[in-house]
Amino acid sequence: MNEMKLSQINDENLTDEQINNIVYSEIGDDGLSSEYGFTFGNSMLINERVKTTVDAYKEGRIKKIIFMGGTNGVSNQDNSLIPEAIKMKELALSQGVKEEDILIDDSSNNTFENIENAMKLLPSNINHISIITSEFHLKRCYAILKKNYPDILVTLISSKDGFSDKDNWFLSDNSWNSGRSLATYEANLLIKYAKEGKIDDLEIKEFKKIL
Q: Fewer CB within a 10 Å sphere, N or C end of the chain?
């Protein structure tokens, strides 16, 4: 089995297979339940992420939800003044989530801030959380948590959107916000952050180097 740490990978001219392994490997759902679920904001994928969150809530997999996202994230292309967290909360309420089961962080504008701010809302003895976000974003969220909170068990719940998922991202061209552009960007970002020591330097299994 070929394995490489993220920081050892050259991010120039990554193949589709390499991008797939970097971004989408080892992100399976362990099926466990936790008290709290973190839902990460993205202005263009709010509907999908809230639906996945509400489904998990109604199935009893999470009891409390923390919606995260402000107004200055890169996905806020229409310059909306309403924080992503507020939009997600309103949508979740309309889908049957109880207001007392929702917490919000409406000031964070990137994944690092999302996690830092959300962790402040949790009890100090927390040992297990679930994270809910698009498949292409799960690895980065996990790597940040692993770096800063190594003793916390993290359950990964993927929100599928039909264009940036593991089984379809490669079907599109590299135009802005396509599945291909999101996955390619994410692969390069994971390598960059690992080299900079900002995230856990995860091992990527079955990674084939270009000779």
A: C
Question: What is the per-residue pLDDT across 51-76, written as a single tens digit (0 to 9) for each?
Answer: 999 999 999 999 999 999 987 545 44
Is the overall model pTM greater than 0.90, yes or no? yes
How far from the centroid of its chain's Cα atoms is residue 123's Cα? 22
Residue 39 bridge partners (DSSP): 67, 132
Report how far residue 66's alpha carbon sits from residue 75's, in angstroms, rounded to the nearest whole number. Answer: 19
Distance CA 109, CA 15 (A): 30
Question: Length of the chain, please?
Answer: 211
Give me the number of domains the chain comprises. Answer: 1
Q: Which domain holds residue 17?
A: 3-205
Tell how strand 3-5 and strand 203-205 pair up: antiparallel
Q: Is residue 85 part of a domain?
A: yes
